[in-house]
Amino acid sequence: MTLAVVVAWLLTAVFAVLVLPCVRRLVRLDYVHLGPAVRNGDLAELLLVVAMIAMASPVGAPIPAAGWQAILVLTTGWFAFAWWRSRAEAGDVSRPHAAGCGHHALSAAAMLYLVTAMPHADMTHGPWLTMSTGTGLALPVLAILGAVYFAADAVRSGFLAVRTRGRYSPGFTSRTVCRAVMGAGMGYMLLAAL
Description:
Blueprint: H1 3-28, H2 31-34, H3 36-56, H4 65-90, H5 96-117, H6 140-163, H7 172-192
Helix pairs in contact: 1-3, 1-7, 3-5, 3-7, 4-5, 5-7, 6-7
């Protein structure tokens, strides 16, 4: 077993562990008081964690790459529109809802880029998504810029999670820890696919 396969399995396991806090938040939190924006963010987080599992897994995913592309295009569009709408309504992109929507739009767009920019000449796995066998991305500058963004966001989210443990709304710490781990994983995947 090569090092790349071992790392892919480790990433798959880490992302699979992140499913639990996402589902726990969706089941336990009172979204009537937290608002629909928080619920939509938690749903997006779950979808993006599942997509990360599919991309990291060395055995591929049960959904073909074209299916993930469709899901990620819709997710990117949904959150980009929500970011734009909240920005236009409030005139302040620093609001947590606007920032969360922008981050989810960028995350879905980065995943869409990974799925789409991978070479598809080798069809030994058929239409199934298997990122661990990739041999380079189109437009590597986008991957590098994305990796820098996600690494910086992972560090920021990690510090925020440690500094604000238990001080904010229910699920805040869980959300920021998941964001830190997902950001680090996404940054790694973008660089590893170069």
